[in-house]
Amino acid sequence: MRIQRFDAPPSTITFHRRLTDAVYLTGGRSPSETRRTLLRYEVTAGSVGEWRACADLSCGRIRHAAVVLRDHLYVIGGLNDSGHALKTVSRYDFATDRWEDIAVLNSTRYDCMAGAVGSALLVAGGYNLSNSSVDIFKIDNKCWLTTSPMPDSCYGAGYAAM
C-alpha cells in the first residue's frame, strides 16, 4: 500500500464519508484530471491526523455517491474522466484494501443520493432517466428493486439514514 502524507486535506478531492475514527475521500477533480484516489484521514494523536492513500478506484469519478455498509465503502454512479455518466457500483473492502465492481445500476446516475438501510443500499434522484426514481440494492442477493419515486425530482442533495 502506498502511503502519502498531506499537511492539509487536498482541496480538489470531495465526498467525505466517516467510518469509526477515519474519514474517507473518494475521487474528485483536479484542474487536469478526474481522480481515482481513495484517501483516508485518521486521527493519530489527540486532534492531529494523517492522510494515507488507499487502493485507487477502477476509474476516475466525480459527482458520485458514497456510503458505508457492513464494513465496506460503496461508490455509486457519477461521471468518469470523459464526463460520461456511470452505471457502476464499486465496493471497497477496508480489510483487504481492494475494490471490486459489484453491480450495475438500472440507469446511469450522477449527483444522486445514497444511504444504507438495513442490509440494502438506497439510491435516489440525481441526473438519470427520472430524477425522482429510487432504487434499492439488496446486498445479500445482489439484486435491484425499484420502489416508489420521490414526490419531486431531486439531484445534488445530501442524504442521511437512521
UniProtKB/TrEMBL annotation:
Please give the Pfam families that the UniProt record associates with this protein.
Answer: Kelch_1
Record keywords: Ubl conjugation included? Answer: no
Matches recorded under SMART domains: Kelch
Q: Which domain of life is it from?
A: Eukaryota
What are the protein's UniProt keywords? Kelch repeat, Repeat
Q: Which InterPro entries match?
A: Kelch-typ_b-propeller, Kelch_1
Q: What is this protein called?
A: Kelch-like protein 3
Organism expressing this protein natively = Eumeta variegata (Bagworm moth)
Name the gene that codes for it: Klhl3
